[in-house]
Specification:
This protein has six helices and two strands. By secondary structure, the chain is mainly alpha-helical.
Length: about 160
């Protein structure tokens, strides 16, 4: 599932629209993020908070510089994508970037909750981020991307 309002299907995979990204890259990033978030839920609080802080930095890079600037994107471009068939579908980078910002918000809530001693609140925030990451990793359904599109449609009607 793509996150563009109208998916761009190209017969020639080398003709990537300007700025477009391969949707399989954010899907890999979501899988890696899910692994990290599961570890956050399983580790004792000090280690969980430290690991969540690292994940928050990764979310921040994706939200500020774009998903194509993250270490996950580098990993996808250099190790994974060369081994895959060329993509026939491209997506705009804005929806995944918004999704990274939403992930950052949940990570920050978790970090503040860990710092305040509210471990259950932190785990719930991490759990929400984990569900979103798993939806993208397993089903190629980017929840944050869909919210982005809904917000864009709502703004267009106002």
């Amino acid at each position: 599932m793509t996150t563009t309002a109208t998916p761009r299907v190209t017969p020639d995979a080398d003709r990537r629209p300007a700025g477009a990204i391969d949707p399989r890259g954010p899907q890999l990033a979501a899988a890696l993020t899910a692994v990290v978030l599961v570890a956050v839920l399983l580790l004792p609080t000090p280690y969980a908070a430290a690991l969540l802080a690292v994940q928050a930095v990764l979310f921040a890079v994706g939200a500020v510089r774009g998903v194509q600037a993250t270490p996950h994107a580098w990993l996808f471009r250099t190790l994974v994508r060369p081994r895959l068939a060329p993509t026939t579908e491209w997506e705009a980078p804005e929806p995944p970037r918004f999704a990274q910002a939403v992930g950052l918000a949940f990570a920050l809530v978790g970090l503040v909750a860990f710092a305040a001693g509210a471990t259950v609140v932190a785990q719930v925030a991490v759990g929400f981020a984990l569900v979103a990451a798993l939806l993208n990793a397993v089903f190629a359904f980017c929840l944050g991307c869909e919210v982005y599109l809904l917000v864009r449609r709502f703004i267009a009607t106002v």
